[in-house]
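Researcher: Next entry in the queue.
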Amino acid sequence: MKPRQVTLSAAQVAELQAVRDHAPVPYLRERAAAILKVVEGRSVRQVALHGLYRRRGERTVAAWLNRYLAEGVAGLEIRPGRGRKPAFSPSDGDGGRRGRRPSAAPVAPPVRD
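Model: Structure for this entry, 113 residues:
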């Protein structure tokens, strides 16, 4: 399979280099580095398997590239709603009781004679 041909302007390359070198979160630096390697001429597969700190899926790197081309650097951000939702959140307002059965009323101990 031949490498995907991606051409970026000098401003886009400079923007990705700045993100790669100075982004506050590691995942943005990794994604920018992957895109820059594809722009340099490496295949998406090669970048996914050998070009990053750890292996990534080929589809993952291709998705990063597609999102960058469609949305710019904003497309590299993790989108809201991703990942597992917390089992308890203080903002629920119910004290973590949602989904639980209501507790039974306390029962008085039997009276002995």
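Model: The mean pLDDT is 86.
Researcher: Noted, moving on.
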